Amino acid sequence: MHITELILEGFKSYPVRTQISGWDPSFNAITGLNGSGKSNILDAICFVLGLTKTDVMRAQNQQDLIYKRGQAGVTKASVTVVFDNSDKDNSPTGYDHCAQITVTRQIAMPNISKYIVNGHKAQQQQVQRLFQSCRLNINNPNFLIMQGKITKVLNMKPAEILGMVEEAAGTRTFEERKDIARKTMEKKQRDIDNLNQLHLKEISNTLDELRKDKRVYLEYQKATRDLESTERLLCAMEWTEYHKQADEARKEIATNAEAIGRVEGEKEKLEGEVEVSQTEKEKVVKARDKEMKKAGKATELEKKIREIKSQRAEAQAKAEGQEAEIRGEEKTIRGFEDELKKLEQALQVKEKELEQVTDKYNKSKEAHDSDAAALQQNEDLLQTLLTGVTAPTNGGGGGGYMGQLSDAQARLVQAQTHEEQSRNKLAMQQKELKTAQARFKEVEKEVGQGAKNLEAKKAELVKMRTGVTSTRWSEDEEKKLETGLQEARNAIRQSQQAYDHYRSNMSQLDFNYTDPGGSFKASKVKGMVAQLITLAPENHKWSTALEIAAGARLYNVVVQDSETGKQLLKGGRMRKRYTMIPLDQIQGRSLPQNKRQAVLRLAPGKAIPALDVVGYSQEVAAAMSYVFSDTILCADAQTAKMLAFHREVLSRCVTLEGDVYDPSGTMSGGAAPQGSGILVKAQELVAAQNKLRESQARLQHLQAEEHRVEPVRRQWKSAAQTLEVKEHEIRLLEEQLAGSNASKIRAQVEGIQKAIADLETELADAKTKQNSAKADIQRLEKDMAEFKDDKEGKTDQLRATIQKQKTAVQKKNVALKITHKDMQKAQLEHDDLGKDIRASHENIASSQKTVEKLQRKLQETQETLKQFDAEIAKDEDRLKQEKAALHRFDAEIEALEQTIAQHKERMTQFDVDKQRLQHEAQTLLAKKKQCKQAIQSLEKRHTWIPEEQHLFGQKGSLYEFKEDLESLRQRDAELRTRTSKQAKKVNTKVMSQLEGDEAKEADIKRKLGIVLNDKRMIESTIADLDRMKRDTLIKTWEKVTVDFGNIFGELLPGNTSKLEPPEGKDIMDGLEIKVRLGAVWKQSLTELSGGQRSLIALSLIMALLQYSPAPVYILDEIDAALDLSHTQNIGTLFRTRFKGAQFIVVSLKEGLFTNANVLFKTRFRDGTSIVERTADRTGGT
Fold first, then answer.
1. Is 343 exposed, middle or buried (0-12, 13-18, 19+ CB in 10 A)?
2. Mean pLDDT, to the nearest integer, of 833-846?
3. What mean pLDDT do residues 146-158 have?
4. Which residues constitute the domain of residue 540?
5. For a designed S-S bond to 2, which of 196, 204, 737, 1142 qualifies (C-beta 3.0 to 4.6 A apart)?
6. Same-domain status, 530 and 611
7. Is residue 609 reached through a cis peptide bond, with omega within 30 degrees of 0 on the bond before it?
8. What whole-number distance in Å separates Cα of residue 632 and Cα of residue 505?
9. Where does residue 119 fall: left (phi above 0), alpha (psi -120 to 50 degrees), or beta otherwise?
10. Are residue 646 and residue 683 in the same domain, yes or no?
11. How many helices (H) and strands (E) are present in the chain, helices listed first?
12. Is the same domain home to 1092 and 1127?
């Protein structure tokens, strides 16, 4: 397996994708100047092979491997190496089927790294196993010789040289196995110590304890049996009581049904009487109708009048709608006209602004172009003076002084011509102005009269505006009031939704009742305890503890007095059962001062009274004292236990998790309560309710304000409408004046005057240009004369002038760009105003058409109304005459209707009574259902009830009821408390544990023998590993020392070298390098020259490489201290002794890289490394 392609991107000095292809499977060399990136190629290969030590790659951390540490926009480094895998015999394990293996490693900022093998993401260990299987172990890199390795070898001690031989021999495996064996043996020894010192002692003590626990367990079993018999008796009594309550409910339901039957009978009787009265009424109505038919056509007239009035009401509504539409359209038109006027005024302002900006831009551009032309002329002049070659100018003339002189003369002639043309145009415009002014005098009187009328109207408008202002109301206040009302209504709707949402999620906090009537006052009902508590955010952590401390009292209802509570319970029709806390009867208690001080002293910062955590109104302080009493909240169980049983405190304590420690000795805890967090949720509900109340109060305030200012608002609206009409009249008058002939003539005069002003400006500019041209001619003639006398001084002066001109042109160029942007912006705004004006004209025309159409329809509707009014008046006169004789029938009908109304009122009261009785029946049914459910629950939990229920209450049986239910419940609770205390002390598994521990004691003794035997076997294994390591090391040393001498002899003919243990020591103590030059064995390497020492180190490294061959070798400047001939020998050595291996060598010496089959040259250009490939030794590319 060898490298065929390397791709770098963002790695060190290779910021862009660099693809290095054409690697030779045998010998490759890399050369280049220092700092050109040649060693970075080797670092990249090591990077892909999985090297984790960044210092080997000459970097402090992974960020140093990214181009310029990611500060040049490159935040990722990627290196890809493509390996040829055609040699299946040496292929990595699991990759025999792949012709190529592509491995990519990527790192990205801040600390992201990943590997990709053949397009699939891989782990680092997987990549390292891949390379280890083909002898490329990056953690033991004998194939990698980086810079400085030669020097390290020369300075190695005997033990370190032995270490290199061990790496080549692979005896590190034996050391690893020995370490594993030693660790296993240490663990076995610990097991032996534990078994000897702890287990036997613990078991022996445990056996004594278990025998004591056995006696306690037997006592606990007796108490449990007593509790079980009591619970069975209690269950029997409760079952019997529920049956009794169910029977009573059944009887009350029957009584209630009879009452409902009586109410229904009375109601049916009244219904019959109502029906009789209705029949009599119908008879009288028929008699009256018959009389009406005899008397005339009253019925037909009434019907006709009703129909006509209905039609008139529809027409009136239609007319009012049309009038409203007309007013709306007229108001819209006035708005459009106001907007149009503002737009036209803005357009006039914008046109002037555009004209000013354009003029400013033209002047700036002219000045800039002039300076630029002068600069160009001076640069051309300087070029001509320095080179003697005349540069062509933009005008086509020659360069130098003569060219500039010719240009100045041409500008003079052009300015004179422009002056003459401007004078002619000015004379023509002045003549036209006189004619236009004469025409304007003829119509000036007409213009003056219209202007006077307009001024009079405007004076009236000012007075009307003053009148509108004096109403002490304005459009802003009107808008503010309307907006405030709308926002308040929206806020109420949003707050109501939020309140309903929280309330629906906390149904357990619902407390609904109906007003019992009488002297009941809702203000005396303070609410549920949970809703009366405020909990600061920093105290939310105590919510669970507070809920446990309060218990069921958290859902009690606080009332002002006991009478209010009685009224609610009797007539409040509540859907659930509630417990009332009357403030005039309840007596709570708080933590005494001496106990408070004791808590602060014993547990500072870890405990606090519950009443200090919650917030509440002083009005309900007694109820809060009753709910929380002297309970203390503790941060942990240890503090709670200590305070609860301390003689100075002896108060109930609750932990953050809800565990309760009572001074009586009971403790409770375990899983979190089901309602955990209800206090925190209640805070959200209260906050939503307060927000809703605030929104309602704000709306009420705004509505009161609206009612207070209603007279002022009506006055303001009337004045504002009159003002709108007057403003419309003024706009029409202004339009008439603007469209008159006089206005047009005046506009013509103003246009001619503006043209004359422009021509006078152009005339002045032409004179200025003439003067400038004449001055330039004089200056150039003077410069030509001075240049003949002082050429060098004139040239320096010209250079200084050019530099100043360049600076001035740059500044004017910046100013010109800014002015151009301002002109473009003004042009865009001007165009937008034009579009808006056209749109306003279209809107006004459309609205006017709509108004005309609506006015025609309104006129038609008003004519119809007049016709209806005349017809109704005529028919009502006729009807009045017809009804004169019908008063007797009407009186009789009225009396019958009163009787029917009284009967219906009594029937309504019967419905109310029936509804009340039905509600009571539902309550009784619910009670009966609850009893049945309780019975079913008892029978489900206690399957023995059906079989033994016939014995319940019988004398002499196990279920004889000798005491009442409450006494039995109290005795059951006492037994539960006693057994609960015993349960905490009793070991229910004592019997099995006693038997198990006795068996465990025998098992431990057996395991001890097994562990001792394992320890002896491990010690034997370590001795075998030491012997195998020595044999392997001696074999490796014998081979390496022979190759060492042969390689050194090839590099330095006539000489040899070897490895041998230090004098008087064994091979396991280390190895030394011995060198023979000629016939003399040197005593020390210090006797050798620097080049000879480098050859010695290189020969040793090559011998080690040859012993444990790898498919790829990476060498970085190993020939740094060698001369040309020796480097050539190294190249020959690579070819002869390492056939089948691929060498990648970095070198600066030609003697080495000329032996390479492929040479890569690196260069550094523009901060980036570049690689070029040379395919032969001659340097041809």
1. buried
2. 85
3. 77
4. 506-691
5. 1142
6. yes
7. no
8. 30
9. left
10. yes
11. 27, 23
12. no
